[in-house]
């Protein structure tokens, strides 16, 4: 399993591609005579690997940016809103407890009144 190719093999591949280009060029005369060269990256493998690593690191940091933000607390407007909502909820609960207390008191009063008048049903 040889991953490297010789210069002769590179030349053979280039000649084959040029022949294919000639066939295309005959069909379409607007194409240039020479096949355009594929861009070659002349950087070392280490440089290319480092670039790929840096790109992946940037993507990771971007995706986790919001997770790593420091919570700065609420500003005054947010605090006032939360305080207002909490106060309103508390006041509703107090009003509900008062209504329930009054309903219970009214029920007991009517029960006592009915008992005093002998209007209670007795089981037989």
Number of strands: 0
Radius of gyration, whole Å: 43 Å
N/C terminus separation: 103 Å
Helix coverage percent: 55-70%
What sort of overall outline do the alpha carbons produce when their principal axes are compared?
rod-shaped
| Average residue-wise pLDDT | 83
How large a portion of the residues is in β-strands, by DSSP E?
Answer: under 5%
In N-to-C order, the SSE pattern is HHH
Poorly predicted sequence stretches spanning 5 or more consecutive residues:
none
Please explain how this structure is put together.
With 124 residues, the chain is an all-alpha fold. It contains three helices and no strands. It has helices spanning 7-27, 45-63, 76-116. The radius of gyration is 43 Å and the shape is rod-shaped. The mean pLDDT is 83.
In short:
The protein has 124 residues and is mainly alpha-helical.
Write the layout of secondary structure elements.
Blueprint: H1 7-27, H2 45-63, H3 76-116
Any descriptors?
124 residues, mainly alpha, rod-shaped
């Amino acid at each position: 399993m040889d991953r490297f190719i010789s210069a002769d093999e590179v030349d053979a591949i280039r000649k084959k591609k040029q022949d294919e280009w000639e066939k295309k060029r005959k069909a379409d005369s607007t194409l240039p005579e020479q096949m355009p060269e594929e861009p070659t990256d002349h950087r070392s493998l280490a440089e290319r690997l480092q670039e790929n690593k840096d790109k992946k690191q940037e993507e990771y940091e971007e995706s986790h940016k919001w997770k790593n933000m420091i919570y700065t607390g609420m500003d005054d407007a947010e605090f006032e809103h939360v305080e207002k909502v909490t106060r309103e909820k508390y006041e509703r609960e107090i009003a509900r407890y008062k209504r329930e207390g009054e309903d219970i008191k009214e029920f007991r009063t009517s029960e006592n009144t009915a008992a005093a008048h002998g209007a209670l049903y007795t089981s037989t």
